[in-house]
Amino acid sequence: MKRILTVLLTAVLIFSLSACGKDKGSTDNSKGGTSDTDVTSSEIISTGSSSTDTSSAGSTASVSSGSGKTVSYVTSEITVKKPNPNIPANTDRSWHENPAGLCFPVTGTLDNEADEMRSKILSSNGSGVKITGTTYYVSEKGDDSNDGKSPKTAWATPAGAEVHNASLKSGDAVLFERGGVFRGSMKLASGVYYGAYGTGDRPCIYGSARNFADAVFTSDGKNVWRLREMFAGDVGIIVFNHGEAVGNRVSSRAELKSNYDFFCDTSDKNRVYLYFEEDPSKVFISIEIGADSVLFRFDGQKNITIENLTFKYTGGHAVRGSNTENITVRNCEIGYVGGSYLDGYGDGKVRYGNGIELMSNSKNTLLENNWIYQIYDSGITHQGDNCVVENFTAKNNLIEFCGMGAIEYWHTKGAVIKSVLYEGNMLRFAGYGFGGLQRPDKNMSAAIQSNAKPTGSNYNYAESFIIRNNIFELSTYDLINAQSRMNTLPVLRGNTYIQNENRRLGSYSGYLDCMFDSAVGGTVKKLWRDEGAKINSPASYS
Predict the structure, then answer these.
(1) Which of 63, 254, 448, 523 is the most exposed, fewest CB within 10 Å of its CB?
(2) Hey, where are the domains in the chain?
């Protein structure tokens, strides 16, 4: 019996050692080692692997922090640990407290104030809008064929909700369940309130069709991986682990040379190629891929409120409307947006993407208490040709890490800006995010960006345009670029200006290329006529 037991124990020990000694690099026929022709979409499954610490070297960029020190922020480097006890079971949702600056850890003078503002926005439960019509529900557990009139008979997707637009009437509401992730885009209906119901985190509207961490990546030679799935639109952005790294878009497959470089082959159904030192599906818990789309669109619509929703991961715009009236966007989070090519513009290689865009005519617009970050172009913009923008208010928004402008405006000859107010906004780190890093035009970033020159095509004719009590904190280029060919300028009142010494303050009226130097106080207060201005950095300036 002892001999038998000894043999059995030895066998068990050998088996255990064999099971524990499987090499992480072993072939997994369900993943990247399988050819495209061998796999159908139904066969794309998760490996369930538990990888060890993986570190991939990349490049860094140096920028100046609010303290005047030079810091380095990561552009293509990441350390990933799987499993991670801090990562929730639902990895479609961010597990980071603040995903805005994960791979761009720039610090400013007013970080604590920004944290407070961010927390206030994220903890909002709504404005108490009274629903006078029918309430419709959207839930991950729903079905688009349902009537949507109760949580038990909810719709399932944004596309499903759009299908039912014809049944929506003024005074109705479409509510997404808190804690849910809803993938896709939709056209909104006039007179309808779009918000959240239930408890927990606000609902997420993602442009990424799925979490591609479980997708099939096929080796295409020398650390280049080809994604099996293809896309209906141009891919503009790839986000790893909800902001721990952002893909760097290149123009050809031959340019794939560093970790996180990606190429979207628009000539081959927008197939994606990614450079990485090992199969990305074995490293990352989340890979969100944003193709060209507008998540919420409302062209020609009116009387719409959007509240308490999160919008992420699209190569186009998050929220966009043209020729609108009575539009409110309140208490929303918008992040990691833009980077797709703007179809039909220029040479076809101009990238775009805004957080909230009002195009052409817009009347009675209110954008308040939103947190907007990591946008390729601008956080908020109103723009257009031969149009009228009237009663446009952007207030109490926190906007960070936008490539072009935190708030951008431009209007050509024949357009009129009437009764526009930017008030109480905190506009930080323009040009420091993925958009600023990847843009070819490095001299475009600004907290306020008029996208204009004194002799340019954007006339920016304005009647009653006020910018007051905002905070402009750090930009890689300008804090303010407010110009008008008609010399009808916004009025500056009581704003706070924070920039590193001897960097650019910006341009206002005929005072161009002003610097943030020892004379900055006089420049802002006397030349720019912001008499109540505060100059916080460097502390000696007043």
Answers:
(1) 254
(2) 297-537
